[in-house]
TrEMBL record, chain A:
Compartments where found: Cytoplasm; Nucleus
Pfam families linked to this entry: Beta-Casp, IntS11_C, Lactamase_B_6, RMMBL
Family statement drawn from the similarity comment of this UniProt entry: Belongs to the metallo-beta-lactamase superfamily. RNA-metabolizing metallo-beta-lactamase-like family. INTS11 subfamily.
CDD domains the UniProt entry points to: INTS11-like_MBL-fold (cd16291)
GO cellular component: cytoplasm; nucleus
UniProt-recorded name of the protein: Integrator complex subunit 11
Signal sequence segment: none
InterPro entries per UniProt: Beta_Casp, INTS11-like_MBL-fold, IntS11_C, MBL, Metallo-B-lactamas, RibonucZ/Hydroxyglut_hydro, RMMBL
UniProt gene name: INTS11
Gene Ontology molecular functions: hydrolase activity; metal ion binding; RNA endonuclease activity
Taxonomic lineage from the root: Eukaryota, Metazoa, Chordata, Craniata, Vertebrata
Cofactor(s) required for function per UniProt: Zn(2+)
Zinc in keyword set: yes
Keyword Mitochondrion: no
């Protein structure tokens, strides 16, 4: 039976780094190639040695698909393609291809900078890796090879994020990557058509959460920033260069405009321009409101947000600064934090998750006395706020997507085991489909029952209707014919047409059998006894005794001959066509029982 | 362990098994294990346990929990294993039967948590860490651990199954080598009981009717022969050889990849490598019986061996060459070409049928080409491959792929239909073509070779990745073209170069950035390889390529701008080598390009082009092309002033490298050794040159840049600056003269201020702005004094630590775990 196999190397019952292997109809696809930012050794990358034990990766994998530009989905890609040695095609959407190298480069710089690390991918490797990427458009069916095709759907979450349908023949899998079912300030909601895949692989970050209104969180955020600025304090918002930063920039820009605020807002590093350039370039990927207002005013041309210079951090008075990186683990955001941490009027707002081993993680866990270099202690007096703006579908959204796509099976990834378990039960109850949640390294096998379309010849169909069987769309119907496989398609035609098309002559197939019976009489007498016996039993059949001594019952022919070595034994030669297979078998078994004495 | 950590660890242990365990990040426990593992390696395990009784208490507390979480249980199993790695610590833990309870029947194996793959994996890891001494092995065997491990080989988790195999391999080899250190008996029945159980299990599984059991055993054996090369492996093999051999003679070979893997691992073992070994006929048989796809990896592995019987090697070569041979035969008329192999010794039927099938043709060719590339790239290949025939075959494949060749033979026609437009095969074939350029003694059909390459470079249908590989192959062949004895005609070379530059001109204008970038990279490689070749220089300079390259300095894509910078920087070298270039009117404008590159360094919004500029400047200076620059001192001074302001630390680092090269060259002019780290000669101080050099450095404002860089917010910049300053100091001060260096407070206010500022600034990673009046960086005497006075070694040690060494320290980790006790769940659930 055909099967689909799924093995997560990452994102199986965790949210560390996504990397999922899918085998479908002989094709092998890797979904995402993420990195775990919490480690600084080889454990940050998935263990690719499990992909194949025999042969080269490029020969084994048919393609790699990247759902979006977050590093937990694409961070290991240059390592995989340039250091591990995968040389095959990589697919992602156009915005992801544009933005991915910026984030990879940003991360590389921070990693190498912090630790002076050498065993890490280089700029050249990032570029070479990006050259292997084939960019795809939404809803464009891309033929990876003759059998394998992929198609991207809008996923919300971040600019360019996509869900991917992977199809081989009539079997298909949809991988959601990270998605968001509610629109936000700059992106729309995820959407997919009723594609009824054999398997939907869905993220489940907020598997048990029904998230509070985003409006409330936004109001809260603006209130906190406003209050701090009003009392003359400075607000630091550590962000990654692209993604949530743009969402928050639009939020503040609109608020500043409405409230006519004067305090400066800065965005650090030279990335602002490039980020905004991409948001302008890929305007079709943003939400409807931004697209509509684009003609009058581009939302990404900020009036209040200016580029930051290192010297501004010492300026007196209130200000808001967006600085990278987002976990306060190096660079400018950490430098500004050190300067401002001692003043209780200031505030740091952490809009995202921080891994252990970063200053961001420390202050979020409530630590207020931080050891710095040279045994100095930094006392954090500034306010520390955590506000999650990560854009994932909540439990309601996940159910909505399943309703939309109508999959035959669901597999959950990118979530915590306990929460997945809860959602799994809910999905199985509501949709009556099987739901799986493999851990990393565990293979889930899903048996598919692919329906294979077959064309029926008009002649055969007409013949069936002529004998009074009108087609009924709701009732399954048995039809007889010859199945022809030609040019990758199936056709059911009448046997005569099949012979004609294939240029073959008809052959009569007959089954034969020898039955030995004890009868010392002459052959023709034995034949007569057989005839009488059958005539008596098979009253509804035409049983004939031919002049040459043989007997026929329908197409079945019986001849009696003497045994070459034993004259007391007669051999009955029975033969029949395949149409009379049932009767032929019955007669054989009847004759094997011998002839009755009375017929003598 | 530091005192602070010693105080924190008991609290952490108590918290972990406490009623409100910390909602720590998933990496915390793993990092805690890493640290404890390092400690147990550094000091005797018993001491660690005695000094920190909280560790054993934690294990006991976890065992006492009614339903410990999978995370905590996994941690405890791994911790117990690594602590019990030493025999004394093992005995200490066993006083309370902790290990028996953790690894025995009544422990986690019997609990609900065993359903979690993480727990099973941790149990195996713990057992593996512990199984380094006989008591541990006895404990495991006594508690039925072997049966558990046998079962776990078939675990649904790949990670667990693989850990189980590794543990069995370790247990078998350890029990033999530990318990029978002299020589394990020549019969398994003399072996230790534990080893006998494992061998029996292997033998039974191999004879089992269950395919999965057979596969598990083959994997286990492959792992065993791969990692263990002791003589006893031969005894083991003698017991199973017949069974393994029987797999190969079955009509359809079971687990062919595993068999190939097993034989390959064995072939690398010194135990089996003797030519008379009965093992080799089995390898030959495998190479014959397995399909070419299955046998490919084995064949490559065999060909990499330096010790291997010749007939096996020939069989392996046959496996790899058969598809290439079939390609040649399929493409040629009957009797026109004899192919690569003698048909009388090989049966091409299987390969032909694979190549004629649409589904297998591309896979077989990609695999074969990949293997050939791997072999041809080896510097010492123990076998001679027929370079010329291979080249012809690869060229034929490339012709099939772009429709240049559609043969009439049935096989050829089928192959060409399958391969036309097949990117996968094109990529692999171009890779092999590139490495074949390095093969000596190839009888190369140069014209047809370049016809094919040019057809790929020209075709609008060429995929960007294939184009990149076409460029790579073309550059490799072009670079070795002038050296080819068979191809010395200048006009032919010129014709090829003209054609290549015509295509390059078109490709430099491609709308696709990947293509423009690969074109520029190709140009740079060509210049590097053929710069001294007259025909090349003339053709290049008379083409439009230099102008187009200059235009691409303003490309919208930063990657392309960076590659254009590199290419333009190399183009200047062409004109530098041949200033009297005969081509006029189109001569590359050196001054203009230098100015443009400086402009890019100061204004380009992206780091890549700026980094490329600084790298080119370093290259010029290093190679001694100083006549490109009117005044080197002035030039370096300007460049570093621009670089210092750069937001990209790698540009600033590049600035420092430029300074380093400048130093070396300035010293060289004074007759100093080239290496700045070379021992100092006392005569140098008295020379005029000494003063001159110092004055040059001061005039060029290098010291200000170097000292300020010590406080750079990016650590590698500070490190580099410190390295350079140390090197300069060693040039001005003999190492023994520094002993008497003065106290900074005695040498004047400026230097004392600098010393203080650097000490604080290197930690805070900032140099106070607007403080340049405190010390005169352009005053030679002050700088000489500063070099002699400031404690650069201390700074060097500080700067060598990673900038997040505090956050990554064990103390910080322990604090983070404690801080997470009872932390809000919201934070834990979030991600990016």
């Amino acid at each position: 039976m055909p099967e689909i196999k799924v093995t997560p190397l990452g994102a199986g019952q965790d949210v560390g780094r996504s990397c999922i292997l899918v085998s479908i109809a002989g094709k092998n696809v890797m979904l995402d190639c993420g990195m775990h930012m919490g480690y600084n050794d080889d454990r940050r990358f998935p263990d690719f040695s499990y992909i194949t034990q025999n042969g080269r990766l490029t020969d084994f994998l048919d393609c790699v698909i990247i759902s979006h530009f977050h590093l937990d989905h694409c961070g290991a890609l240059p390592y995989f393609s340039e250091m591990v040695g995968y040389d095959g095609p990589i697919y992602m959407t156009h915005p992801t291809k544009a933005i991915c190298p910026i984030l990879l480069e940003d991360y590389r710089k921070i990693t190498v900078d912090k630790k002076g690390e050498t065993n890490f991918f280089t700029s050249q490797m990032i570029k070479d890796c990006m050259k292997k990427v084939v960019a795809v458009h939404l809803h464009q069916t891309v033929q990876v090879d003759e059998e394998l095709e992929i198609k991207a759907y809008y996923a919300g979450h971040v600019l360019g994020a996509a869900m991917f349908q992977i199809k081989v023949g009539c079997e298909s899998v949809v991988y959601t990557g990270d998605y968001n079912m509610t629109p936000d300030r700059h992106l729309g909601a995820a959407w997919i058509d009723k594609c009824r895949p054999d398997l939907l692989i869905s993220e489940s970050t907020y598997a048990t959460t029904i998230r509070d209104s985003k409006r409330c969180r936004e109001r809260d955020f603006l209130k906190k920033v406003h209050e701090t600025v009003e009392r003359g304090g400075k607000v630091l918002i550590p962000v990654f260069a692209l993604g949530r930063a743009q969402e928050l920039c639009i939020l503040l820009e609109t608020f500043w405009e409405r409230m006519n605020l004067k305090a400066p807002i800065y965005f650090s590093t030279g990335l602002t321009e490039k980020a905004n350039h991409y948001y302008k370039l890929f305007i079709t990927w943003t939400n409807q409101k931004i697209r509509k207002t684009f003609v009058q005013r581009n939302m990404f041309e900020f009036k209040h947000i200016k580029a930051f210079d290192r010297a501004y951090a010492d300026n007196p008075g209130p200000m808001v600064v967006f600085a990278t990186p987002g976990m306060l683990h190096a660079g400018q955001s950490l430098q500004i934090f050190r300067k401002w941490a001692g003043n209780e009027k200031n505030m740091v707002i952490m809009p995202g998750y921080c891994v252990q081993g970063t200053v961001g993680h420390k202050i979020l866990s409530g630590q207020r006395k931080l050891e710095m270099e040279g045994r100095q202690i930094l006392e954090v007096k500034m306010q520390v706020e955590y506000m999650s703006f990560s854009a994932h579908a909540d439990a309601k959204g996940i159910m909505q997507l399943i309703r939309q796509a109508e999959p035959r099976n669901v597999l959950l990834v990118h979530g915590e085991a306990k929460k997945m378990e809860f959602l799994k039960q809910k999905i199985e109850q509501e949709f009556h489909v099987s739901c799986y949640m493999p851990a990393n390294g565990e293979t889930t096998t899903i048996f598919t029952n692919p329906s294979i379309p077959v064309d029926i010849s008009l002649g055969l169909l007409k013949r069936e209707t002529a004998i009074g069987l009108l087609p009924d769309a709701k009732k399954p119907k048995l039809m007889h014919g010859t199945l022809i496989m030609k040019d990758n398609s199936f056709r059911l035609v009448s046997p005569e047409q099949a012979l004609k098309e294939l240029g073959l002559a008809e052959h009569q197939l007959r089954f034969t059998c020898r039955v030995h019976i004890q009868d010392p009489r002459k052959e023709h007498e034995t034949g007569l006894r057989v005839y009488n016996h059958l005539k008596a039993i098979l009253k509804d059949y035409s049983v004939q005794h031919l002049p040459d001594g043989s007997i026929t019952v329908e197409s079945i022919l019986i001849q009696a001959t003497a045994h070459s070595e034993d004259q007391g034994t007669k051999v009955l030669l029975v033969s029949w066509t395949y149409q009379d297979e049932e009767l032929g078998s019955y007669l054989t078994s009847l004759l094997k029982k011998g002839l009755p004495q009375s017929t003598a | 362990m530091s005192r602070e950590c010693g105080l924190l660890l008991p609290r952490v242990c108590a918290a972990l098994a406490g009623p409100r365990p910390p909602a720590a990040a998933d990496t915390c426990l793993q990092k805690l294990l890493d640290w404890l593992g390092e400690l147990s390696e550094a000091e005797p395990g018993l001491k660690l346990l005695q000094d920190n009784p909280c560790l054993a208490e934690l294990l006991a507390a976890v065992l006492a929990l009614p339903e410990p979480g999978a995370g905590l249980l996994s941690f405890a199993l791994r911790l117990a294993g690594l602590l019990a790695a030493s025999e004394s610590a093992f005995q200490h833990l066993q006083q309370e039967q902790l290990l028996a309870r953790l690894f025995g029947e009544a422990g986690p194996r019997a609990g609900a948590a065993w359903a979690d793959a993480a727990v099973r994996g941790a149990w195996l890891d713990g057992a593996r860490s512990m199984a380094l001494h006989e008591p541990a092995l006895r404990l495991l065997c006594a508690h039925g651990a072997l049966d558990v491990i046998f079962t776990l080989q078939g675990d649904p988790s790949l990670f667990v199954a693989s850990a189980a195999r590794r543990l069995l391999v370790h247990t078998l080899s350890f029990s033999l080598e530990y318990e029978m250190p002299k020589a394990p008996g020549t019969r398994v029945c003399y072996w230790p009981p534990c080893a006998q159980v494992i061998v029996k299990h292997i033998e039974d599984s191999l004879q089992s009717s269950s395919v999965s059991h057979v596969k598990q055993s083959l994997k286990l054996l492959a792992g065993l022969f791969g990692s263990c090369h002791a003589p006893w492996t031969e005894v083991l093999w003698s017991g199973i050889a017949k069974q393994v051999q029987s797999f190969l003679t079955e009509e359809s070979v079971q687990a062919p990849h595993l068999l190939a893997d097993l034989l390959l691992n064995m072939s690398r073992s010194p135990v089996f490598c003797e030519p008379e070994s009965s093992f080799w006929p089995l390898v030959t048989s495998a190479l014959e019986h397995l399909t070419p796809v299955q046998a490919g990896p084995l064949a490559v592995g065999i060909l990499r061996l330096h010790k291997c019987p010749q007939d096996v090697r020939i069989q392996a070569v046959t496996v790899l060459l058969q598809p290439m041979d079939c390609i040649l035969r399929a493409a040629s008329q009957p009797l026109e070409y004899s192919g690569l192999l003698d048909e009388s010794v090989t049966d091409p039927a299987t390969v032909e049928s694979l190549l004629s099938s649409k589904s297998s043709c591309a896979s077989l060719l990609c695999q074969t080409l990949g293997h050939l590339e791997e072999l041809l790239s080896l510097s010492h290949l123990p076998v001679d491959l027929p370079g010329t025939s291979l080249l012809r075959s690869v060229m034929t494949i490339l012709r099939f792929c772009n429709g240049l060749l559609i043969p009439t033979s049935p096989l050829g026609s089928k192959i060409s239909q399958t391969l036309i437009g097949c990117f996968r095969v094109q990529r692999s074939a171009l890779d092999v073509l590139a490495v074949l350029s390095e093969q000596k003694g190839c009888d190369v059909p140069v014209e047809s070779l370049f016809d094919i390459l040019l057809s790929y470079l020209e075709s609008p249908n060429t995929n960007p990745m294939v184009l990149k590989k076409s460029f790579q192959a073309t550059s490799k062949w072009l670079v070795c073209l002038p050296e080819m004895s068979c191809f010395s005609s200048q006009w032919q070379i010129k014709k090829i170069l003209q054609d290549v530059f015509l295509v390059l001109q078109k490709r430099l204008c491609s709308p696709c950035w990947e293509v423009r970038d690969s074109s520029l990279e190709f140009l740079t490689v060509l210049i590097n390889g053929l710069r001294d070749h007259d025909e090349f220089r003339q053709t290049l300079l008379s083409s439009e390529v230099p102008r187009l390259t200059e235009d691409l300095l303003g490309d919208p894509e930063s990657y392309v701008r960076a590659s254009a910078v590199t290419a333009a920087g190399h183009l200047i070298l062409v004109t530098y080598v041949a200033p009297e270039s005969p081509v006029t009117g189109n001569q590359y404008n050196k001054e203009n390009t230098v100015a443009k590159l400086q402009e890019i360094l100061s204004r380009d919004p992206e780091g890549f082009p700026r980094r490329a500029v600084i790298n080119i400047f370093i290259k010029w200076l290093r190679k001694g092309y100083t006549s490109l620059l009117q005044d080197t001192e002035q030039f370096v001074s300007e460049v570093i002033q621009t670089a210092e302001r750069d937001l990209d630390w790698e540009v600033r680092l590049g600035g420092l490298e430029l300074v380093e090269v400048f130093f070396v060259q300035t010293f060289c002019r004074c007759g100093r050794p080239k290496c700045p780290y070379a021992p100092f000669s006392p005569e140098f101080t008295s020379s005029v040159c000494h003063n001159e050099s110092l004055q040059v450095f001061c005039r060029a404002k290098l010291f200000g840049f170097l000292f300020r860089s010590l406080c750079d917010c990016d650590r590698p910049v500070g490190q580099k600056a410190c390295d350079i300053l140390l090197a300069i100091r060693s040039s001005f001060y003999p190492s023994n003269s520094l002993k008497d260096s003065q106290d900074p407070e005695e040498v004047g206010h400026g230097i004392a201020w600098l010393q203080r500022t650097l000490r604080q600034g290197s930690l805070a990673q900032t140099f106070p702005a607007g403080s340049s009046h405190e010390v005169d960086f352009q005053d030679p005497e002050s700088m000489l004094l500063a070099l002699g006075t400031i404690d650069l070694e201390e700074l060097h040690d500080d700067l060598n630590k990673s900038s997040d060494h505090v956050e990554k320290s064990p103390q910080s980790l322990l604090q983070d775990i404690l801080a997470a006790v009872g932390a809000a769940e919201d934070n834990e659930a979030d991600c990016y």
